């Protein structure tokens, strides 16, 4: 077989595989949205489950998912940036840093149920936070931190060496070079890693069953105190997220339209992840243009 024929066959196989993957993804997305749109309306999105007949809405669960996302990112991003910057710019090449990288690889492959049991033991019981949003956010931080650390490290290492050397040659300090030269150039990769971590937060259920709980109090959306038990912003209250709600509705089967509620909640979850990804990428490009000459 001559090289030209081999190249054509390989190209055809690769295009076929790509087409199959895209077809499966679009088919799954179309199936979820088609069945979910039959249930979605304004009342379903904004109302709590107990205020509607036959299953109710998902208002508190949607808010809990977004609040948990924000709280988790507030904890994860500074730690991930610090760890990635240390490994890329300050960590010496020795057995200790090799052990740290190996530990990060092991942690990134842990099953979510194991992270949930760890969170139950440490954050719920030892720390005494109980089933709460804060316990869930800390468990998800353990779950996502290895991913973000590796993404930040690889993004910083991918910056052309000449840019760093040029900055240092001008007498600029190492830390200022990291802030003003390396981080802005590495920002697109860091944004991509943050989006991946956010997607895992939206879709996680197993770890939250043991940390954030499977129920929510009757929230009072006119009370925005951080200490009131029924306040939406109270981080020490239990919180049922959309992913947990979908699992709960399907597993318990206590309502007559469980399938319709699950379909609607699944469609809302997919659309929320989609809109968040689009917004994060737009925001990342805007920040990148502001911090660089692009």
Automatic annotation (TrEMBL):
The chain crosses the membrane at residues 12-34, 66-88, 100-123, 129-149, 181-202, 260-280. It is a multi-pass membrane protein. SUPFAM superfamilies: MetI-like (SSF161098). It is found in: Cell membrane. InterPro entries: MetI-like, MetI-like_sf, Phosphate_PstA. Residues 62-280 form the ABC transmembrane type-1 domain. PROSITE patterns: ABC_TM1. Keywords: Cell membrane, Membrane, Transmembrane, Transmembrane helix, Transport. The keyword Protein biosynthesis does not apply. Pfam families: BPD_transp_1. Belongs to the binding-protein-dependent transport system permease family. CysTW subfamily. NCBIfam families: 3a0107s02c. This is Phosphate transport system permease protein PstA. It comes from Ammoniphilus resinae.
């Amino acid at each position: 077989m001559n090289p030209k024929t081999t190249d054509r066959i390989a190209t055809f196989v690769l295009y076929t595989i790509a087409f199959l993957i895209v077809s499966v993804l679009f088919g799954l997305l179309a199936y979820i949205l088609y069945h979910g749109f039959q249930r979605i309306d304004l009342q379903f999105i904004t109302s709590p489950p107990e205020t509607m007949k036959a299953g109710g809405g998902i208002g508190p669960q949607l808010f809990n998912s977004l609040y948990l996302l924000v709280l988790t990112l507030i904890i994860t991003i500074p730690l991930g940036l610090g760890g990635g910057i240390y490994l890329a710019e300050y960590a010496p090449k020795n057995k200790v840093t090799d052990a740290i990288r190996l530990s990060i690889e092991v942690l990134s492959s842990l099953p979510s149920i194991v992270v949930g049991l760890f969170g139950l033991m440490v954050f719920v019981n030892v720390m005494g936070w109980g089933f709460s949003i804060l316990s869930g956010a800390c468990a998800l931080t353990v779950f996502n931190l290895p991913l973000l650390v590796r993404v930040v490290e690889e993004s910083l290492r991918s910056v052309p060496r000449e840019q760093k050397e040029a900055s240092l040659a001008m007498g600029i300090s190492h830390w200022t070079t990291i802030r003003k030269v390396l981080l802005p150039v590495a920002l697109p990769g860091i944004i991509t890693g943050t989006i991946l971590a956010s997607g895992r937060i939206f879709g996680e259920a197993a770890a939250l069953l043991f940390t954030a709980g499977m129920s929510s109090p009757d929230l009072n959306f006119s009370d925005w105190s951080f200490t009131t038990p029924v306040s939406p912003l109270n981080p020490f209250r239990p919180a049922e997220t959309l992913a947990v709600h979908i699992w709960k509705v399907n597993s318990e089967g206590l309502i007559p339209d469980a399938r319709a509620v699950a379909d609607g909640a699944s469609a809302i979850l997919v659309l929320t992840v989609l809109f968040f990804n689009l917004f994060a990428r737009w925001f990342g490009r805007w920040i990148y243009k502001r911090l660089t000459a692009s």
